[in-house]
Design goal:
Layout (H helix, E strand, L loop, with lengths): L6 H4 L1 E4 L2 E6 L2 E7 L4 H4 L7 E5 L2 E2 L5 H8 L6 E7 L6 E6 L1 E4 L3 E6 L2 E6 L6 H16 L5 E5 L8 H9 L6 E7 L6 E4 L10 E6 L6 H11 L4 E4 L7 E7 L5 E10 L15 E4 L29 E3 L12 H12 L2 H9 L5
Helix pairs in contact: 5-6, 7-8
Length: 349
């Protein structure tokens, strides 16, 4: 497990390309990683893996199951998959070396679209490349930026600070508070904005956790960006990994992340400025649904932000992404008031 903890933060590993957890003794797919064999084979979030090459998962730990799924690149693995509403079926996947691209980008008209898939060591280089290309293509015609943090489960703290700082000129990004005051740390932004002041939208959902929530909460607090989507996961605890003398390590929860507002992210998550309701959305677990999770330590009355149905927004790209369509429509409208007035009127932009 100690060695395993370094795999995702390095951004390169061998396997299938899925993020997994355990649910009722089976492996549950949290999310397939884009452009990997599992993604291309059609694996979906919420799929349950019951067997690996005919061997039952039931009774195994998550680490044991992951080791079964990993193997030499080029070898074939057969997963038995259980998906709601369907009989169990097999998926055949060829293992490869997974090199996770932390940042993807493109332009949508006069808007720069940047998707950060994880906060690995590759994030900083990726975000700099993204803006070099976007500014090169659009120049002074850049109308806005969409920063997509949906289903980004987090990663390295220093990379989240780099991303938030890329759009802020000053102010605290996050503070880390332990049990004792002398263990408190605060991280602030330095001058400089890669987006050069362009209007921004941040997209989040229930799968946005930890480092993603640090970025979203900071950009929201300083009104540098408008946050759209659904309430984030709420993973605001800090784990410290302490190597043991002989072998292995101890993972200990030592502190909590606090947003610039002074409230902890733990169990509360980040509430968007505008909720984008998705039809027939299956309820997903958040941090406070997990056994043994920490409660929010500074309970406040939850915000009740305005909401619209994402189905009202245009579908964008091959995936018919209506939440991205809402983000682009927001930038076109220019303000929350105009955006909400337009869609509450039942029109389509």
């Amino acid at each position: 497990q100690f060695r395993e903890s370094f795999v995702h933060t390095k951004g390169e590993f061998g396997g299938l390309g899925i993020e997994v957890t355990m649910e009722d003794g089976l492996v549950r797919v949290v999310a397939p990683i884009e452009d990997t064999p599992a993604f291309l084979a059609g694996m979906n979030s919420g799929d349950l893996i019951t067997h690996v090459d005919g061997e039952a998962i039931k009774g195994k730990t998550l680490l044991e199951a992951v080791r079964l799924m990993r193997g030499r690149p080029g070898t074939v693995i057969i997963l038995r998959v259980r998906r709601a509403g369907l009989p169990d079926f097999d998926v055949t996947i060829t293992r490869v070396i997974i090199k996770v691209r932390a940042v993807k980008w493109r332009t949508e008209g006069k808007v720069g679209y940047i998707r950060v898939t994880r906060f690995s060591e590759r994030m900083k280089i990726g975000i700099e490349e993204a803006f070099a290309v976007i500014h090169g293509e659009l120049g002074s015609n850049l109308r806005g930026i969409v920063l997509d943090l949906r289903n980004n489960s987090g990663g390295l703290l220093d990379q989240s600070l780099i991303l938030a700082d890329a759009f802020l000129d000053a102010g605290e990004i996050v503070s880390v508070r332990g049990r004792l005051p002398q263990n408190h740390q605060s991280y602030a932004a330095a001058e400089g904005d890669l987006a050069k002041g362009a209007q921004m939208v941040v997209l989040i959902n229930e799968g946005s956790a930890s480092a993603s929530e640090i970025v979203a909460s900071a950009l929201k607090y300083y009104r540098r960006a408008t946050v759209l989507g659904t309430r984030s996961f709420g993973k605001g605890s800090v784990q410290t990994i302490m190597p043991l003398p002989v072998e292995g390590a101890l993972r200990l929860t030592t502190a909590l992340y606090y947003a610039p507002s002074g409230h902890t992210i733990q169990a509360r998550g980040v509430q968007p400025d505008i909720v984008l309701k998705v039809a027939k959305s299956q309820k997903k677990q958040r941090e406070n649904d997990l056994p043994g999770s920490f409660d929010a330590v500074d309970e406040t009355t939850p915000a009740n932000p305005p909401s619209i149905s994402a189905d009202l927004c245009p579908a964008v790209g091959e995936k018919k992404d209506r939440q991205l369509g809402c983000a682009l429509a927001f930038l076109k409208a220019g303000s929350s008031g105009k955006f909400l007035a337009f869609y509450h009127g039942g029109q389509q932009m």
